[in-house]
């Protein structure tokens, strides 16, 4: 599998280049220092120091060679710093210059016993480290040949005897041994470096993969340091934490005081708050905190399970299951019920029914209609399409729907007093589903309201900026024993009620990430629908 080049590859290439050129710069620096010491040592021996460091047999030649060697060494150091010409060209040229200059200096000194032959070993060793085994062998052979050539010239000029070849041979053996050792050491170092670079790429890829996975987790993940600064937050947690990274590490209490309190309680072991649901930005979360160091003295990792969203998903699964159940209900109950109701209606048209018989027939028709309403409500749950949320102008929409609903009821609700206290507000919701919810709440308000019933509809924004819609009546309110089960299926305080209206309303609300609840009111009952904030929806989509 091929992988396209990226910034990581470019970074690794630059790093490898730096590791290659840096040793060459050091080697060229060493060459410049040696050339400087040779030149300065000769000058010290020439200017007022008869016992100076260096006493060449040919001072003029030594001066010219040393000066030229120093100039070339400084030039090579500048070329290495500029990385031009190519690396190998500089290595080969530099080492050959070293061999030639050291051989020439040994010749001008008139003796191989000067100790400059050691410089030949260091020059060849440096070239072998930089050039590898083959170039190292070439440099060693060149150095050895240069030493034999210098001794041959000395022998021909009568400055040395034949025994000098033994010394040259031993020095040549040392050069070859040092070159081979240096080349093998360099090869092993390069292999280790390549292996380390490969492991580095693997680690970087693994880190990128882990970051990719964590960012796409449905669970919110927040990493804190020991001072509760946010070091990392994935996409799910970003609406809560805001921007993190690129030098930004805000404190947790600046972004969520509720979550900061939970972390503080957990760290101080004052409570088991880490297993207690909390409300954050209008949604319920279950925080789970893990220490990054023993006993929680270092940083910590927070996992946030969005219980509100989980319930919405569970509700969707429950609705799917109920859809399968209602298919059976439609076949097993509705068809026999329809036949029974039709037979009862035909029997009602009979003229010779006794009074008692007609009363029993009314009971059958009334209870049949009630059972049919229950079946219709259950079938409505199974037929409901997925929520198609769109922005709804609550203040104008609620007024229009309420007036239309009252007009459709006819004289039955003619004495209903409808008050609309609507402030401008907008919320994302499926308008068809919201109409069903509002009509259900209006029907409950009239049925349970006073005499005459008074219904109030209010819209606006709460303290945290979430839109809401309220429906209140002037009735006696909801009994305490039914409040806990108010939104469960078949929970009702009316003898002729089905108990599915508020259950259906809750299902429709949760499908659109809204929440319906019974809130405290001075008189009567007040139901409030709190909608998801539009900006939260946008952040979740782009995060």
Please state the average pLDDT score: 79
How large a portion of the residues is in β-strands, by DSSP E?
5-15%
Distance between the termini: 30 Å
Count of DSSP strands: 12
- Work out the helicity level: 55-70%
The global form is rod-shaped
Count of DSSP H/I helices? 16
Structural class: alpha+beta
Low-confidence stretches: 1-5, 7-16, 536-543
Which strands sit side by side, in order, in the main sheet?
Answer: 2-1-5-4-3
Radius of gyration, in angstroms, nearest whole number: 46 Å
Q: Give the ordered list of helices and strands.
A: HHHHHHEEHHHEEEHHEHEEHEEHHEEH
Largest sheet: 5 strands, antiparallel
Structure overview:
- With 543 residues, the chain is an alpha+beta fold.
- The protein has a domain at 7-205.
- The protein contains 16 helices and twelve strands.
- The chain has helices at residues 7-46, 59-82, 87-109, 117-131, 133-156, 164-215, 238-241, 252-255, 257-267, 307-348, 355-383, 394-409, 431-448, 480-483, 501-511, 534-542; strands spanning 220-224, 230-233, 278-280, 283-291, 300-306, 390-393, 417-422, 426-429, 454-461, 467-473, 515-519, 526-530.
- The strands form three sheets. A five-stranded antiparallel sheet has the order 2-1-5-4-3. Strands 7-9-10-12-11 form a five-stranded mixed sheet. A two-stranded antiparallel sheet has the order 6-8.
- A hairpin with an 8-residue loop joins strand 4 and strand 5 (300-306).
- It is rod-shaped.
């Amino acid at each position: 599998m091929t992988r396209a080049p990226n910034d990581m590859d470019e970074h690794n290439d630059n790093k490898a280049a730096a590791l290659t050129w840096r040793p060459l710069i050091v080697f060229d620096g060493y060459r410049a220092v040696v050339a400087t010491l040779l030149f300065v040592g000769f000058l010290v021996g020439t200017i007022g120091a008869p016992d100076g460091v260096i006493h060449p047999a040919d001072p003029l030649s030594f001066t010219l060679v040393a000066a030229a060697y120093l100039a070339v060494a400084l030039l090579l150091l500048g070329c290495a710093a500029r990385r031009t010409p190519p690396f190998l060209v500089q290595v080969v040229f530099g080492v050959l210059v070293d061999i030639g200059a050291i051989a020439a200096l040994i010749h001008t000194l008139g003796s191989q016993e000067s100790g400059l032959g050691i410089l030949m070993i260091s020059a060849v060793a440096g070239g072998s480290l930089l050039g590898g085994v083959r170039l190292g062998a070439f440099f060693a052979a060149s150095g050895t040949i240069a030493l034999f050539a210098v001794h041959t010239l000395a022998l021909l000029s009568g400055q040395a005897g034949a025994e000098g070849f033994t010394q040259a041979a031993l020095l040549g053996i040392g050069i070859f041994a040092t070159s081979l050792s240096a080349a093998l050491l360099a090869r092993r170092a390069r292999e280790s470096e390549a292996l380390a670079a490969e492991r580095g790429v693997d680690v970087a890829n693994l880190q990128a993969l882990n970051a990719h996975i964590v960012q796409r987790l449905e669970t919110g993940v927040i990493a804190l340091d020991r001072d509760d600064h946010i070091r990392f937050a994935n996409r799910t947690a970003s609406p809560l934490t805001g921007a993190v990274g690129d030098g930004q590490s805000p404190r947790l209490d600046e972004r969520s005081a509720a979550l900061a309190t939970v972390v503080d309680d957990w760290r101080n072991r004052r409570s088991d708050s880490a297993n207690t649901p909390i409300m954050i930005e209008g949604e319920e979360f279950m925080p789970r905190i893990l220490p990054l160091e023993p006993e929680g003295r270092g940083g910590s990792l927070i996992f946030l399970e969005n219980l509100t969203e989980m319930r919405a998903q569970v509700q969707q699964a429950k609705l799917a299951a109920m859809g399968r159940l209602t298919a059976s209900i439609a076949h097993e109950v509705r068809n026999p019920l329809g036949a029974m109701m039709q037979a009862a209606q035909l029997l009602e048209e009979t003229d010779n029914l006794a009074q008692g018989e007609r009363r029993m027939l009314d009971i059958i028709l009334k209870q049949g209609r009630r059972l049919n309403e229950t079946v219709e409500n259950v079938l409505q749950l199974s037929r409901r399409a997925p929520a198609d949320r769109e922005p709804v102008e609550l203040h104008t929409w609620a007024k229009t729907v309420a007036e239309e609903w009252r007009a459709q009821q006819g004289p039955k609700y003619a004495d209903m007093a409808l008050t609309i206290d609507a402030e401008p507000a907008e919320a994302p919701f499926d308008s068809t589903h919201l109409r069903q919810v509002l009509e259900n709440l209006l029907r409950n308000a009239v049925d349970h309201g006073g005499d005459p019933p008074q219904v109030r509809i209010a819209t606006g924004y709460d303290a945290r900026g979430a839109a809401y819609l309220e429906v209140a009546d002037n009735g006696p309110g909801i009994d305490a024993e039914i409040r806990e089960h108010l939104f469960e299926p078949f929970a009702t305080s009316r003898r002729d009620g089905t108990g599915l209206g508020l259950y259906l309303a809750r299902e429709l609300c949760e499908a659109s990430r809204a929440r319906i609840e019974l809130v405290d009111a001075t008189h009567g009952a007040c139901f409030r629908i709190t909608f998801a904030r539009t900006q939260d929806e946008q952040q979740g989509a782009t995060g």
